[in-house]
Write a structure and sequence with these properties.
mainly alpha
């Protein structure tokens, strides 16, 4: 990515590489996608099911248990 001032930014994926070992990157990628698809949904996040909600910076957390939901 080339910024307007000519400074080249580092790739965004490099941040994950610093946190996860290379051998776990593919699994981490898929787990993050699944987490967003089934737990941390855009319209109705299920924060009561989330195992990392203490690390989350989302202001409007939803801890209301859905009707007929099981944890």
């Amino acid at each position: 990515f080339q910024a307007e001032d000519g400074i080249r930014d580092q790739p965004r994926s490099r941040g994950l590489g610093d946190v996860y070992k290379r051998q776990y990157l593919n699994n981490a990628h898929h787990l993050l996608i699944l987490h967003g698809r089934y737990i941390c949904k855009a319209r109705n996040p299920e924060c009561y099911r989330c195992v990392v909600n203490d690390l989350c910076m989302f202001k409007n957390k939803n801890f209301n248990l859905k009707k007929n939901a099981t944890i």
